[in-house]
Design a protein that fits this description.
Length: about 130
């Protein structure tokens, strides 16, 4: 009886510890996109057009788009925060931003990449389809 109870309590404790450490190890990434050039030349019109993010790792690989929002309209920076499962820690996330307008869908020409690190990450604002060489 004692042996069975000990095994049961050990299993429960192991499960609890696993859940706690797994939940803490997820990667939270805040993506930011500066749309000032598109706003200035009217190739992006707030309220009509939308900007979203797609990638190779769930939830960005999901069929549902992850939309960015302008949380502080004064700076023209659109952002979204995405949580990735701990099982993806160490993997390379490949992603692109998309701008959807009634006329067409614009996709960045090059794929971006980021290593998921199991911690909270806030990326600096970048410009759509602009890459540092």
């Amino acid at each position: 009886m004692k042996n069975t109870l000990f095994k049961y309590l050990s299993s429960v404790l192991f499960l609890f510890i696993t859940i706690v450490f797994t939940a803490n190890a997820q990667t939270e990434v805040t993506f930011k996109l500066n749309l000032q050039p598109q706003l200035e030349d009217s190739t992006f019109i707030p309220g009509r057009d939308r900007v979203y993010l797609k990638g190779n790792i769930f939830p960005l690989s999901n069929t549902k788009n992850t939309y960015l929002k302008d949380v502080a309209p004064i700076d023209s920076v659109y952002e979204t925060t995405v949580n990735f499962s701990a099982r993806n820690d160490g993997k390379a996330l490949k992603y692109n931003f998309f701008i959807y307008t009634p006329d067409k869908l614009k996709k960045e020409h090059r794929t971006r990449s980021l290593k998921l690190q199991g911690k909270k990450m806030e990326l600096s604002p970048i410009h759509f389809d602009s890459f540092a060489w």
